[in-house]
Write the structure tokens for this entry.
Amino acid sequence: MRLQHIKQLTKVNLIYANPQMIEKKRNKEAKSGKISSIPPYMSVLLQNGFLLLVFLLLYGFMFAAIDFTQYPGMFTTFIMMFIVMALLQGFYLVYNLFYESKDLAHYLPLPFKGSEVFTAKLVVLALMILPYLIPILALFIMLGQDAGQLMLVSIVTSLLLFLLLMIVVFFFSVVLVHLITKLSFFQKNKQAVTTILYALSSLGMVAVIFFISSMGPGAEIANGQVMPDYQVIPFIHIFHKILLNPISTTAWLGILLWIALLAVLALLVFKWVVPGFYREEEGIVSSKPNKSKNQQKTVFSLNKISTSNKTKANSAASAGHPTSVNRTLWKYNFGLIQDGTLIMQHLSSSIIFPILLLGPAITNGVYLEDLTFHYWALSFFAGFVYAFLTLNAISIVGVIISLDRENFIYMKSLPFSMKNYLKQKFLFAFVAEAILPLILGIVFIFITKVPFLLGVLFLIGIIIGLFVLCHYYFARDFRLLNLEWQNLTELFSRGGGNFSQVISIFGSFIIGILAIVLIGVLLNVLPPAWQTIVSVLTAAVPIVLCIVATKWYKERFWSRFTD
């Protein structure tokens, strides 16, 4: 492989990884008339580097308060959590970047080797997932310092161990995805199997996270501990041993096992995956039709709406058969969301955060059956906050219009109401977004034995919160409409990219939890009259926001479309 070629391919893939940011940069330069001295690929690197720094500092300060020399179980649990998060992100990124991307056709006529193309994509994959793994580096350094090692020795050792772990995770993701794509059943049922695998991958990761987060501390407190430790996770505990005692023979034997695992994975990647990937993609490019099966099915569905002539379609949409038209539109929208990446992201955004938040409470036997109706407003508000933890820019409603691609322009040419078309699309997305949060909410109510009325108010709060957020993200998708996207990553990165999404998610979490805690405290310490006032004001917030949002989007968004 030629290093210079890999470098240039990496630059191109970095631009491809965040096209929305590059487009904003170019538009800004066009308006100002000044060309930035920072290359486009460097802008992507700087943004990702800033996100990485935020994660490193955030978790670094969090870990600083724990002496991990006394808590090997907690140390291994945190590492497993971050590995799972990286795999969760890496699985769909590997498939999109290596198998769903459409840039290989541009590389084939050029003097690039398959290994060079693959390595460049692997470098970009590493850069995109690195923020999710960087807290592990902070853990390693913290443990080395707690063990009394010199700063330089601790940093060097931690970096080497971190690189070993990171490359193993990356190679494992690549081999796993490639192995799945080589199955004959996958090749015959690519769309269906991809959707199922993304769903199972997401649910599997949630199950692992739920299991890890629910592992309770031991019953006994060992010497030097101020609280019980978690169970030690085998194989990962090797990193704890070698950082605690670098001259331990047992620890080095364990590291040799990790190196052997890396060697096996590297052999599979560069001797099996890379050549197979290049040959397979070359064959796909040479025989690829103009439209994918998905797009053909989509156009076929739309043609069913338009019928044989525009006059007949117009009468069916306006007066004759509005129910049948709406039913067809829902079937069409259901076909749009049958994409593995989209389903995986929908599941992860709807399930993982609530599971991480509610899992430990459930498994530790937290029961709320003694709650009285005194907390009716707090239960209602908690449901409203819960909605904000399950819905963000990476959602079905946030891309449902852009999923139309060229069919959105086609729909405008049909003789029926565009407003009704978008309303049916909005209602479909709202229902799709509400299913999982409501199911999880019901499970939480059932397991924790929340009183019936409080549980109903909690679910109503979820519905109101989702309704408000769906309006925002639906209008946002129309405002940032992109009908020429190559993969869903482009749609997910619109409007500020990954950094703004992370800030939004953590901001909602922190503000929401603080508000719930504050309201709970006030309801316990204030006099009865003031408690009633707090309850009314608390319940009024979601209701007022819902009314204001509905009126706002009716005047500013829906009014631009004619019936």
